[in-house]
Amino acid sequence: MLVHALRFIVAALVVLFFGFLLPGFSILGFWTALALAACIAAGGWLVEAAALHRATPYTRGLAGFVAAAVVLFGAPYLFPHVRVSAIGALLAALIIGVVDVFVPVELR
């Protein structure tokens, strides 16, 4: 559960921060960014539940990348104030996937 909450927080920060920096990636509104982050976190959970039985850090990163890429490519159709180019979606998804590699799976 904590891992999914961390994925939501990371996705929200990436979407909010890189929405201003990346080319072809613009999000208007805080609540839209949070809704998009919730979709990314839910998509990551679905990919992990469907495909991964034992998640390693690299497979978690790949699942985060795939979920973020699919959600970001579909975001302009779901949210009216989102504009995402292919490069912007891939760069944001790559950042989310890389951060997912380094998020701890277990608390020690």
What does this protein look like?
- The chain has 108 residues and is mainly alpha-helical.
- It has one domain (2-102).
- The chain contains 4 helices and 2 strands.
- A two-stranded antiparallel sheet has the order 1-2.
- Helix 1 crosses helix 2 (30-51).
- The two termini are 15 Å apart.
How would you briefly describe this protein structure?
Helix content is 75%, strand content 6%. It has 108 residues and is mostly helical.
Give a topology summary.
Elements: H1 2-21, E1 25-27, H2 30-51, H3 57-78, E2 82-84, H4 86-102
Antiparallel strand pairs: 1-2
Percentage of residues in strands:
5-15%
**What is the radius of gyration?**
13 Å
- Number of β-strand runs: 2
Report the average pLDDT across residues.
81
Q: Which percent range fits the helix content?
A: over 70%
Relevant terms:
single chain; 108 residues; mainly alpha; 2 strands
